[in-house]
Automatic annotation (TrEMBL):
It comes from Sinanodonta woodiana. The keyword Metal-binding does not apply. The lineage of its organism: Eukaryota, Metazoa, Spiralia, Lophotrochozoa, Mollusca. Its EC number is 2.4.1.-. Pathway: Protein modification; protein glycosylation. It is a single-pass type II membrane protein. Residues 97-229 form the Galactosyltransferase N-terminal domain. It is found in: Membrane. This is Beta-1,4-galactosyltransferase.
Amino acid sequence: MKLVRSFKCLDIIKRQSIAFFVIIGIYTLLYAGMQWSLSNGMGHLYINGRLTQLMGIRKDKFNNTHNIFLMDSNMDDLNHLVAGGKSSEHTANTEPCPETPPGLVGRLNISLPNIHKSVTNEDSLLRVGYGGRYRPSDCVAKERVGIIIPYRDRKEHLTILTRHLHNILQRQQLEYQIFVIEMALPTQFNRGLLVNVGVLFAKESGNFSCFIIHDVDALMMNDRNLYRCGSQPRHLVTGSTKYRSANKEYALPYDKYMSGVIALTDSQYKKANGFSNLYFGWGGEDDDFYIRVTNAKMTFKRPENDVGIYLAIPHENDLSNPINPSRVDILNKASARQSREGINSFYENGKKIGYKRYAIEYRQYYTWLLIGVNEAAIVKQFEE
Ligand code: UDH
Ligand code: NGS
């Protein structure tokens, strides 16, 4: 009897071992397949919390998000997945929101020593949908705004800015989504290229009537500075603490300076052919864009002087954004290059070229896109 029992026991152990190895084998195959697909151009999509019932999702150890592996090109599916959530709850009220939002307070009481606290409104954060989307629930927004933030390694600034924007843009009764576009190392930072990619990505993600190109360290100080587009491109900064002098609290470095925060419709952006992609490192891309806008027979408009004021968060120089020694040479040829190099550079026979999407993450307060760029290839493409 004892012998029979121990045989049975052995049999069970054998079967369990086989099952164990089969499961390990399947996991190994799945994991290898996943790695292979990632290294062959498939993007990651990370979505916060709620979609855990889907296949191919694993919890991210570090930031409590979930990763979903999907084809890069499948933006319609991605949008469908992240639709829903608080921001897209349908409102019964189809009345347009008023021209002047009723809750504005004007000059904002924000200051550096207490910056986190002074920009945060917890209620506004609770109303944000996946990927940093929002839509007013009591009226139809006057504008659907895509906020594009070119970004690398400024985590603290990003936390502050996104909190501030969610608070103020909801008060401005806008429908909006925040996009953070990051360039993977080791490539030198390229603000213009990131903005172009951001606008293209935002256009795939939603139907935006206006794009706001926003530096990560610029905090608006007056909520009457409405984040809307106009019949001409808009420079929303009339003065920043960054250029503060003894006799001027908020200033600009020169009159044609058009950086920090600008607002353009898709058609205005296209008319200028977007930013140049050739400025790797610091400086020049904003002056180049000014030339492009002017060549396209448009002008930048600014809000009232006391409305377009900004608090600039101070920071050290960025190691991967050194001053570009070629910037003036590139700038001198801005007009000659404009029609063949810009936002139109990225498509060849309907295919994206010049950069790779490494990851898309629908984070709690913004949508994040990480791209890889081959600097030598981009520069070579446009060598005279
Ligand atoms: N940016 C990053 N990370 C970087 C570099 C730039 O996120 O490493 C983004 C960010 O949105 C920033 C914007 O690009 O607000 C513009 O960057 P910038 O370095 O041109 O401007 P910023 O006002 O600094 O941040 C200016 C200091 C550079 C001094 C060079 C010589 N005067
Ligand atoms: C100009 C740069 C711009 C820059 C501006 C302000 O000289 O890109 O200074 O810079 N143009 C060129 O270098 C050709 S700041 O004072 O903010 O560091 O935006």
